[in-house]
Design goal:
- The complex is a heterodimer of chains A (about 325) and B (about 290).
- Chain A is an all-alpha fold.
- Helix content of chain A is about 80%, strand content about 0%.
- In chain A, helix 1 runs parallel beside helix 4 and helix 6 packs parallel to helix 10.
- Chain B is α+β, with helices and mostly antiparallel strands.
- Classes of the chains: A mainly alpha (about 325), B alpha+beta (about 290).
- The interface between A and B is large, with 70 and 79 residues.
């Protein structure tokens, strides 16, 4: 058969396939009727066959190129992206994540790093004898004066409107820091920097506020008690998940660097998801419980309760085979 | 396509479940940057629109709920805009759709939701190092700009133009354009058909020569006659000697005639019934097929 005749006989099919792709791509009519779907699959397979035989048919290169693109577009309409499988999320968050955290050296390392720097910075800011200007250098004067002015009044509750707005602010601000910590961990240095800087900054603020001569300290500690456990754990978890990514390509072990990174990232992302849930809970507590005029014992109770939840999450759910052993 | 060309071109080959291999063109930074900027513009415009609408309904100051919705909306669009769109729009964001791009896995298969979200969250890693305007003078530390150096450097270092986010999730961005079917190149010169009849009937055009001929016929319009002669000479000169044609035969015409015989008129070895082509009918047919092109 002549190439011209061959092209002429196929052109109709290719054009129909193109029109179907266009229809599938426009958002309004996402679904084709079943007959058309069968036809689409047939036309796609026919186009694939034409492409496979392009060399034997001696098709011109421009037509071959056309077929490559046509088959590519049809392929992308036939095989579509997988959406989120929300049913799996519960299992991942409640089973897989605690299990992997429990034996995760990187999270433990991040935990030690964060709390080590935090405590060291707190001690330095508290004990003026060791490094007299430490708190001023670390926090800078404007931050100190702002901290003092923020906590000069005893906590008596804000108007509920401001609480709502602040909840939005905390969710955005804190979760962003966590995500940056996580992503920065991939490049190692930014991740470590963000972790250490946050630890040192927070530690210095805590240490400074704990000084006996700082009168605002009492209000400060009343404020931070309730949401502290969730928020600080979430930061540590983000840093640990990020650190794991960095270690994955720096010390890949028996894997190729890229393969190791891809594999670890699939496991680390759910960890970050758990951290984001914690940031969310912390933001709600920070917005509605912490600034309220509720008595201190209640806030302490919230802190103890949230610590208990975290303990349950990490230890009971995380113990290898823990929940399954409990249920038999 | 030969391996040498494959190494030079930015294409990847995908083998489908139908066991067909086809090529994709990989998108480079100069096509992806406009898509990113478009997405950024769309995000900011949508954000401003929402702020305007909320303020319109709740009064200028806005209630606490309005502020919370705006802040959370900004957070979600900052980190998950691309991920959500790519998961639900089959690997495309509005910007990518306008620029004709699509995200696929490195195997050419569709991405899943986790990959879509991750490759967008990890864009932050591509943005490093951050540039603070404080190095220029005394400005508040709030003005920090991403330089995208890490992303560009990583893209330049691999053959599939993957940025850090793509490497982490095993994805890549391909160009997906609407193709144009051009069909067989037109041969206008009436002498072509005459010359085609003079060619020996037992001469078989090999597959690689057929490819060369059609590449030449498709592109010869872009060259001046002198340049055509120079290019066609490489193949035309030995063919003139082999066919015993007069030495002053135009090489360009000879290649066109050979092309005409191979692609447009009957190939004698496959249909011996119509050994002598009827040039006028065939020329009319080939023109008609050109005419029906879009």
């Amino acid at each position: 058969m002549k190439v011209v005749e061959l092209l002429e006989s196929r052109r109709r099919h290719w054009k129909t396939l193109e029109q179907m792709i266009d229809r599938l791509q426009s958002r309004r009519r996402k679904r084709l009727p079943p007959d058309d779907l069968v036809k689409f699959a047939d036309l796609y397979r026919a186009a694939c066959a034409d492409l496979a035989l392009a060399d034997a048919y001696q098709l011109p290169p421009s037509t071959t190129q056309y077929l490559h693109r046509l088959v590519g577009r049809a392929h992308n309409q036939l095989y579509r992206s997988h959406k989120f499988d929300f049913r799996l999320w519960g299992k991942i968050l409640l089973h897989d994540v605690p299990q992997s955290i429990f034996r995760d050296r990187c999270v433990q390392l991040a935990f030690c790093l964060f709390w080590g720097v935090f405590i060291a910075s707190g001690v330095l800011a508290h004990q003026q004898a060791l490094w007299p200007d430490y708190a001023q250098q670390m926090l800078t004067e404007p931050v100190i004066s702002q901290l003092e002015s923020n906590f000069s009044e005893p906590l008596s509750g804000r108007d509920p409107n401001a609480d709502l707005a602040m909840a939005g602010f905390y969710i955005r601000h804190n979760t962003s820091i966590g995500l940056k910590c996580f992503v920065g961990g991939l490049l190692v240095i930014p991740g470590l920097f963000i972790t250490v800087f946050n630890a040192a900054h927070l530690g210095a603020a805590f240490g400074y506020m704990a000084r006996p001569e700082v009168t605002e300290g009492q209000n400060f500690f009343q404020f931070v008690t309730a949401h502290g456990p969730f928020e600080l754990t979430a930061i540590v978890l983000s840093a640990g998940a990020g650190l794991r990514l960095g270690v994955a390509w720096l010390a890949p072990g028996r894997w190729g660097r890229m393969a190791s990174l891809r594999r670890t990232a699939r496991e680390a992302m759910p960890l970050m998801g758990a951290a984001m849930c914690m940031f969310f809970l912390a933001a709600l507590i920070e917005a509605f419980v912490s600034p309220s005029g509720l008595p201190y014992w209640f806030k302490a109770l919230v802190a103890i309760f949230s610590s208990g939840v975290l303990m349950f999450y990490f230890v009971v759910l995380g113990l290898p085979g823990g929940p399954s052993r409990a249920t038999g | 396509m030969s391996t040498a060309l494959n190494q030079l071109d930015t294409t990847i080959q995908v083998v489908t479940p139908e066991n067909i291999a086809f090529d994709y063109r990989v998108a480079g930074p100069f096509r992806r940057l406009p898509a990113f900027l478009l997405d950024l513009a769309i995000r900011i415009a949508a954000f401003l629109l929402i702020v305007f609408i909320i303020n319109f309904f709740t009064g200028a100051g806005g209630g606490g709920l309005a502020v919370a919705v705006i802040l959370i909306g900004w957070f979600v669009s900052e980190w998950f805009y691309g991920g959500l769109f790519e998961a639900y729009w089959n690997g495309q964001t509005p910007g990518k759709r306008i620029m004709g791009l699509r995200v696929l896995t490195t195997d050419g298969q569709p991405i899943n939701g986790l990959q879509a979200v991750m490759r967008n969250v990890f864009r932050t890693a591509d943005m490093y190092p951050m540039l603070s305007l404080q190095i220029l003078g005394d400005v508040p530390p709030a003005y920090i700009f991403p330089t995208f150096f890490v992303g560009l450097a990583v893209m330049a270092c691999n053959r599939r133009f993957q940025r850090v986010g793509d490497l982490v999730c095993g994805t890549l961005v391909v160009i997906e354009e609407k193709p144009w079917l051009t069909g067989v190149a037109k041969v206008e010169d009436p002498r072509t058909a005459q010359l085609a009849e003079l060619l020996p009937a037992d001469f078989r055009v090999s597959r690689s020569m057929a490819r060369t001929l059609s590449s030449y016929a498709e592109r010869r319009h872009y060259f001046t006659p002198a340049r055509r002669r120079e290019i066609a000479g490489h193949l035309g000169e030995p063919l003139v000697r082999r066919f015993g044609l007069p030495a002053d035969t135009s090489y360009d015409l000879l290649l066109c005639a050979l092309y005409y015989r191979t692609f447009i008129s009957d190939r004698p070895e496959e249909s011996p019934r119509r050994e002598v082509p009827r040039p006028h009918d065939l020329a009319a047919e080939s023109n008609a097929s050109k005419g029906s092109d879009p």
